[in-house]
Structure formats: structure tokens, C-alpha cells
Amino acid sequence: MSPVQRTTLAWVPVLSPPGSSIPLLFFPQGNICYEFYAFLTRPSFRGKSGAWQRLHAQAVALLYEFYATNGSPQSLASQTDADSLIADFVQALLFGTVQADGTDPKGMYWRANSADHAKQILDAARRFGAFLEEEGSLVTLHPTVAYRADWLKHQFAFAMRRNTSMLAHLKNERDHLAAPESTPFQRQITQGRGRGRPIAFPKPLEAEFFKTGLFSRRQRNRIQSVCPHTVRDTLYFLLLMYGGLRKSEPLHLFLQDVVADPDQQGCALVFLFHPETGSVPGERARRNEYLRVRYQRAPRNLLAITDPLFAGWKSMLLDETTRITGPRTRVYWRNLEAGRLFWQLHKVYISIVRPKRTNHPYYFVSLSGTSIGRPMTIDTVDDAFERALARMDLSPDASAGLNPHGMRHLYAQELVDAGVDPAVIQICLHHTSVASQITYTRPTPGRLVDILKKAADKIDQGHLDFDPSSLGIRWKSDPLGIFVTKKHRET
Q: Rounded distance, CA 378 to CA 310, Å?
């Protein structure tokens, strides 16, 4: 058995945007996959997040590895053969390649993927295939010494585009009135698929997380004597628990983004701007330009995903615009007391905790060792969360909602339970579509039972409209005695 041909991924700095990097794929021969480079630098794909780039690099790498191990020029001889190869790729992606006895005749040793993750990979592969089909001829004419493998043939690319598309539901794309038709490959990926209910941070642990997890008993009554880490971490998790932010979003905050709320005395007003194109309060520059000129930095969402300072950024609804600041949004506190606590701690953080001189404008900073004063990282957030749980004798567990993102789910669920209008919840979660919040606001099984009980009480006082005994069902067809009344037992 010949060794499996695997690609190598390396993040390489690029000139634009300044300070950013992109992933390059290298074939076993040491040559660059130029097609993937051309794909990433396509104008419509420039500026995509590091996570998006890494996902597409993974998809292309898996495609190459699978074809190099299982395919041949003959396997692309016809569209039928190409379709068959893609079908095998989907199967390997979903179920893995390891046999029941632990062996893998091909030596690939792929693990099974969840339907959701497989869909993400296949969507990325479809997008790459569409690029090759649309612009492959231009790529071929580009002068390059990059290795060109026959697995990049347009026939294979078209097969990938057609058979793994999870988004296009029409068999004939030119006839938009055609009836939707699913392909066998779509059925493979969707069979048995169903997202599990997103788990919110446990409501009973909400207060304990701050009182025990972050604040010690000694610190609670003397806010000026609290540990610096406690001040910073409490500020951070207030934004997640009571502001509904994603884990990475506070890492993009600038010092200027936190001000006193003029409409709520003693409450913090926290503004959110796009990390690249957003304005900087008090400055005549966009954030990417401000970071480049003043600090020789790039926005954190443009850094290589392997960079410790990388912080992701998903599309966010910027629901307010002013002539001076441009598009922005704000943190909507689900409890104003949280906003007041934030402002109280903010004053301590700025005056005592956060170093005065830093080579960056970011609000949250590291407070440990040689990295003190540097921008806070995702790893630091995770460490702080784990420490807080440890003080509560708990461990991180996403299946129980014990992860930072569970706080965002709790935020959303609290708004739903309070009867807040879905359009308002959309704005509070900063979703660009009202449909996006469905994942966050689906009720728990326990909540569903309560809702149905209340509904039954309203509809028919919790009783059936007929007497079960009137059905005349005897014990022979009712072994549990559900329909048997005293009268039936006596007869």
C-alpha cells in the first residue's frame, strides 16, 4: 500500500489588507496549489474570515487526498464516473474510512463527521468547484510553476458542484420554475440529520457564576480590593450573559466604545462597530486604517486563524447610523442592573486595572506575565471561564450549556420567555435575519411540556372532550387498563 498523498497548509502574509494572512496548500511534491490561491484572492472572496479560509482549505485538501488515494484519470473519463467518485467521497466524509476491525485498507484513517460538519465541508468544496468551472480557463493561462493535477479537471469540478450542493434545490438551474428535486447525495447528507437543541447556560447557575465563580466572598463587599483578573473577567462575561454577545465579539472593542449611558443614570453604554470598516469615536478614520497608521496592526478578524490574537467576526446587524459615527449597534442589556454593574467595574478597570500605555486600542487586555497589556486572547477567555467553573466544582460541558456561547443562548431564551417580540430579539442578538434566532430561541423539552400543559388548560381545562369508557374498549385490547373504568371491571 502506497503512502497517502497529503497536502500541507501554511499561513502566508499578504500585502492587502495590511497585516493579514491567507492559507496556502502545498502538494507532496512541494508545489503550491495555485488554483486554491486564485480562489482565495478572487475579489468576491477577499476579506473572508480566517475560519472561512481554513474551512475551504480543509475541503480542498480532503478532495485532493481522497482523489490521490482512490481516483485516477480513468475515474474522470465520464460524468457518471465522476459522479460515482464524488458519491464515494461523501460516504467517506460522513462515515469515515476505518473498518469495524480498526483497519483502513487505503490508509486514510478518516473519522466520521457529523452531518452538519460534512455539509460545511461539502458546501466549501462545491464553492471551489464552481470557481473552477467558471474561471478555470483563466487560472490555467496564468504563468505559474504550481503543480496541476488531473483531479482539478472541470468534469470533476462540475460533479462536485452538482452533487454536493446543499443550497441549490433545482436540478436545472436555468429553469427557476422547475420543481425542487433532491439528489442521492443530498439524501445521504440529510438522512437522519437534525440539529440538537442548542443548550443554554443553566439559569440556576447564573448568579453563582458571578458570585462564586468570579467573585470570592471577601471581594464581593469591597469592590476596590478585588483581584484585577476578577474585574476584567466580570466585565467580559457580563457582556456575554446579559448582553448576549458572542465569545469573540468583546475582543474587538476599543476603549472609546464604552461610555456612560445618557438615558440610564449609572449604566454603561457599549457600542459595537465593524472591526474593519467601523468608525473610531473621536477619530476621522475607519478602524482598519486607524489600526494600521497608529499601531501598525490589522483588524483581529483578518489575522491568520493560527495567530493567538485572531478573533472571529460574524455578520452583525448594525441597526443605528449617525452622520458622525456611521453604522453601529449597541449592547442591549437584558437587565439594567447588569449595565450598572458594568459601569461601576468599568471605572475601576480603567483607573486601576488596565495599563495606561499600550500599543493597541483594545479594551480587554492580558494581565499575566510577559503578555501583560497585550490584547486579550480567546485562550484567555476560555481559561477564565474554566477557572470560574472550577470554583463552582464544575467543568466545561457544551452538552450542559457550560460553555461561553451557552450564555448567549440563555440571553435569547430569557427574552423569549419574557414574551419579547421576535423582531426585537433579532435586534438584541444583532442578527441580520429574523430567521437566524430560531436556533437560539427554540424552547427546551421541559419548557415545551409547560407550554402544552397551559395550552391544554386554556383549550379544554386539561380534559378530553369525551369519556374514554364510552369507546367500549375491553381489557383484551387494553392490557394496561387505560380505558377500563370501575363499571367495566364489574361486568
A: 8
Question: Is 447 within the bounds of a domain?
Answer: no
Q: What pLDDT is recorded for position 197?
A: 57
- Please check whether residue 457 lies inside any domain of the structure: no
d(CA 450, CA 409): 19
CA distances from 298 to 14, 274, 306, 364 (A): 12, 13, 15, 17
Q: Which amino acid is at 154?
A: H
Q: Are 275 and 347 within 8 A, CB to CB?
A: no
Mark whether 214 and 185 lie in a shared domain: no
Q: Per-residue DSSP letters for 68-89?
A: HHH--GGGGSSHHHHHHHHHHH
Q: Find the length of the chain.
A: 491
Domain that holds residue 227: 203-441
400 and 315 housed in the same domain = yes
C-alpha cell at 149: 493535477
Contact (Cβ atoms closer than 8 angstroms) between residue 147 and residue 31: yes
Q: How confident is the model at residue 253 (pLDDT cuts 50, 70, 90)?
A: very high
Return contacts of 321-329, CB within 8 angstroms, 24+ apart.
Answer: 324/279, 325/271, 325/273, 325/279, 325/281, 326/278, 326/279, 327/273, 327/274, 327/278, 328/271, 328/272, 328/273, 328/278, 328/279, 329/271, 329/272, 329/427, 329/430
Per-residue pLDDT tens digits for 95-125: 888 888 888 888 888 888 888 888 889 888 8
Task: Please give the helix or strand (H or E) that residue 413 lies within, else none.
Answer: helix 404-417
Mean pLDDT calculated for residue range 161-178? 38
Cα dist. 96→67, 104, 208 in Å?
15, 10, 42
Q: Is 102 left (phi over 0), alpha (psi -120 to 50) or beta?
A: left
Q: How confident is the model at residue 249 (pLDDT cuts 50, 70, 90)?
A: very high
Q: How far is CA 314 from CA 175, 246, 409, 430, in A?
A: 33, 9, 16, 10
416 plus 269 within the same structural domain: yes
Q: How far apart are CA 80 and CA 61, in angstroms?
A: 23
| Torsion angle defined by CA atoms of residues 303, 307, 309 and 314, in that order, rounded to the nearest 10 degrees | 50
Whether residues 379 and 313 fall in one domain: yes
Residue 379 has pLDDT above 60, yes or no: yes
The 10s digit of each residue's pLDDT in 269-289 is 999 999 999 999 999 899 999
> Would you say residue 459 lies in a domain?
no
The confidence band for 434, taking pLDDT boundaries of 50, 70 and 90, is confident
176 and 208 both lie in a single domain: no
Q: Which three cell numbers stand for residue 113?
A: 463527521
d(CA 247, CA 240): 7
* Set of cell numbers at residue 473: 374498549
Classified as helix, coil or strand, 244 is coil
Say whether the peptide bond before residue 17 is cis (omega within 30 degrees of 0).
yes
Number of structural domains (the chain) is 3
The pTM of the full predicted model, rounded to 2 decimals, is 0.65
